[in-house]
């Protein structure tokens, strides 16, 4: 709910800073999202009159002479399609600030001097969704009575302040300006002042022209008024300003009045063109299967029997409480209109609105409830305003069906209950004062009193509601504290939680799916894939041997999950789990095990299925290792891989241990074929990482490294080596050369065969050099290569090819 502070001040004599009002409302039960002003950041905008307007040949531009209240007219070049002589416009003078803090300067356009800018509302930061359609593609044309040279801010109400309220369902009474006025009046102990809208009716009874009926229990009341001799025209500037500040686009004087009444009373209304009715009888009923309705947004809606509709000649002309139909829409040629005001069942409106995905200001209010005491008053007010703004004649009387339950709600309680619940020591006089400020009648005494709750506060029905009203007007900050007080701590994720969330994001981005396996397993599986098996932590009274021991690894549980899926024809799997493993280094009968955070993943099946263009690609060691590398790359950690046959359940030739800063933190590789057979699974690759160790080694500081503007230089080198020399040894030898400008080492080719000889292989590398301070010369790079070649010959016995 957007609240115009200028409008609110007319309803309640309150004159405090908007920020203070917002704080006060938030602490008494209605949360304020924020306060803003349409004029914020704008300056030097005045009303100008276009004296002359000449087309610039071969362009869409016009040269205008504009009177801005100075001695001489200003020449301004404007490209708006609706610019013309004789109109009044918004002019931004040189030095002015418009939307996005754009500063207007003197300048030349196509060689023509322009001493300012003629502005549209969009250029003032007004949303396109609320700008009148006639000005949406051009400049804003001001009414003739706009005073030349005066600031546009008060004229367009841009100097208003907009208070955005976050209304909870129980306080739907604040979805109207009158409801907000009552609330502010109670907070500051002020009186509300509501303007009278006198209604003059003709002698012609409305009942002679139309009748109304309700044929559904989803509508309690339906009433209409008929207006004749209506002249459709734009609304006066004050009404357009008010609606735009409230986030509603001005349409015409009739539609704008219905929106005004919606904001003022919280009463949804709709106007029909009476001349488009095919009958003189309006019936509110539920839709029939197969019926359709084209709503005002141009969409054809398929109706269902649960939908409530307004019908004429047994044809739907509106979705009750949601949106009118296009066939009876008010147009520029409309002269006779029907105004409706009604009470519909909120649940029915909500169901239809949700099913159709059609939310409106009207539907949101019917869903939460409306003030039954002002339904007819709102209808009379709308009729009075249209008669005033559109020169309409109002037929005598309302035509209605159903009834309104306008009686006040009686709620009783006692002073003792109030003080017991709130922990206060209020007197009966305090209670009387609070309900006087709220505008509620009070009868009785301290032992038992009854509050007459007006219909505008339909959220109050039980004593607990009264206690809440007393507490918030008395002041929540004044309620005595009865619980122990302690300084709170700011909620924050721990380092472990942050790492876990980051790893989940990485793993799922790599195509892995999270699972959760059992923490309890068998004694054999508990230590099967553990790098450092420890004492088993056994349950004293296990339900079964399969769930008797705390796990020391997560891989065995993941293999159980893979076996379960493979047996059910789900063969392509990429799973991961983040959880705890338990290492018992003390007495297993008396000491608790250490809990170690771990990450494990398992892969089996195909990476890519076979199709008419490509062959099937199965999971292999390098794909699993690539996932590990991607994880550590995102964590900005450099790890080392060492081939190992340490784990008996892993393939001895396709398993690598992973080390970080010399500390063993995990492994990656293929499950041993015999182990896979025991689990009844196909070829499977797994990895497990010690997250507790990784967390301890993570650096919290990530220093900024400037991207150098000097180019890198690459050189390829091919080596003839013994087949026993590993890639790791070659990289170590290259680094041992101590070339500080070497930034990357990349292996791009390995070759072995009879042509090279037995026990010999060829390895080719791309070496990248870069100096962040200057461009490297060929001589420098040549020296680096010579140094590296010498080290390779000495360290690994390489022959440079």
From TrEMBL:
The keyword Metal-binding applies. It catalyses: tRNA(Phe) + L-phenylalanine + ATP = L-phenylalanyl-tRNA(Phe) + AMP + diphosphate + H(+). Binds 2 magnesium ions per tetramer. Transmembrane segments: none annotated. InterPro entries: aa-tRNA-synth_II/BPL/LPL, B3/B4_tRNA-bd, DNA-bd_dom_put_sf, Fdx_antiC-bd, Fdx_antiC-bd_sf, NA-bd_OB-fold, Phe-tRNA-ligase_IIc_bsu, Phe-tRNA-ligase_IIc_bsu_bact. The keyword Ligase applies. This is Phenylalanine--tRNA ligase beta subunit. It comes from Streptococcus macacae NCTC 11558.
